[in-house]
Amino acid sequence: MPKKGLIERLDSGVVIGDGGFVFALEKRGYVKAGPWTPEATVENPEAVRQLHREFLRAGSDVMQTFTFYASDDKLQNRGNEAQKKYTGAMINQQACEIAREVANEGDALVAGGISQTPTYLNGLGKEAVQKEFEKQLKVFVDNKVDFMIAEYFEHVEEIVWAVESIKQKCPGMPIAANMCIGPEGDMHGVSAGECAVRMAKAGADVIGINCHFDPDTVLAALRLMKEALTKAGFKKHLMAQPLGFKTPDASKQGFIDLPEFPFGLEPRILTRWDCHRYAREAYDLGVRYIGACCGFEPYHVRAIAEELQKERGCLPTGSEKHGQWGDGLRQHTKPWVRARARRDYWENLKPASGRPYCASMSKPDEWGVTQGDAMLKQQAQKTTDEDLQKLYKK
């Protein structure tokens, strides 16, 4: 029996995405923070394969190719030599093969992924940006991925160009389009609702938000998108793939503005119970593609799958060793821990903030720099000490 496609699945139920590969693999020592590029598909394919398997076991219905930031211009940006060593095509080819191998171990789909480019930030124009997309898209077409995800776009202009490229080079393939924005809209001041409408007009089948913000903020922005789409007469599926961190204090630029980014975010990590609430609130909003991004580990995705077990009609394999709502604790040696084997305890828990004597909230940097600003110009050579001194002074 052939697998049901993305739209068919969304029309009849819930699709659960996978989690945050770059952050998970950086913590494991396979991705370099800074460039965040996915050459691990070539250098350490087993690490990528294992993480896919963990998300599949946790309940993910989609194996998204580990191709985040895998355009040639990003792979050679600011001293990164990945593109010289392996080429973008090689990295993306390996990503497709790994994702398909694991997807075939279950009933999962494979999604190819493209994201924002340094070429856009450099202001080089539509033709140059779409040329970068098209080099990646050839690999996805050759590997017959099940659908495409355009994700992590800060500017609606660029994601519209991405959707246009996908429609041209991948005819008939479903397209999910995600921006990394909050309720304030994109970095050029386009409202969240207008961004959604423009993505729909460009031809996206699924519209949503990924990364940069926590579940509460992402769902608040999706409400605005849903209202605007309805008003404009579009019926589109909604998609959410938020951060696995609590970031209510993040500004328009999202968590990359927080001083803890990227190495001090652990005190902000969502609990699995936060993920239960996120899954339920997303579903109640009408979101049917419910996934995750940076900070989400497989156990977070398992919580999403467990919360939606009634709607999905099943539990993930990873729940075999997990008593829901702490039920497994009834087997614990200590009586006060056994007393926590109940839903109301965990559902109403207010976790400690993390580190003793820490500041209760941090202050976003808010430099206000985006596409069109000279400070954001990208370059092939590595950032020098002199370049950094200029930034330190700011």
TrEMBL record:
InterPro entries tied to this protein: BHMT (IPR051524), BHMT-like (IPR017226), HCY_dom (IPR003726), HCY_dom_sf (IPR036589)
Superkingdom, natural source: Eukaryota
Entry-linked PANTHER family: BETAINE--HOMOCYSTEINE S-METHYLTRANSFERASE 1, HCY-BINDING DOMAIN-CONTAINING PROTEIN
Keyword presence, RNA-binding: no
One annotated GO biological process: methylation
GO (cellular component) term, any one: cytosol
Pathway per the UniProt entry: Amino-acid biosynthesis; L-methionine biosynthesis via de novo pathway; L-methionine from L-homocysteine (BhmT route): step 1/1
Key words, A-Z: Metal-binding, Methyltransferase, Transferase, Zinc
Record-level Gene Ontology MF annotations: betaine-homocysteine S-methyltransferase activity; zinc ion binding
Keyword Transferase: yes
Protein name, UniProt field: Hcy-binding domain-containing protein
Cofactor list: Zn(2+)
Matching SUPFAM superfamilies: Homocysteine S-methyltransferase
Domain Hcy-binding: 3-308
Cofactor binding: number and manner: Binds 1 zinc ion per subunit.
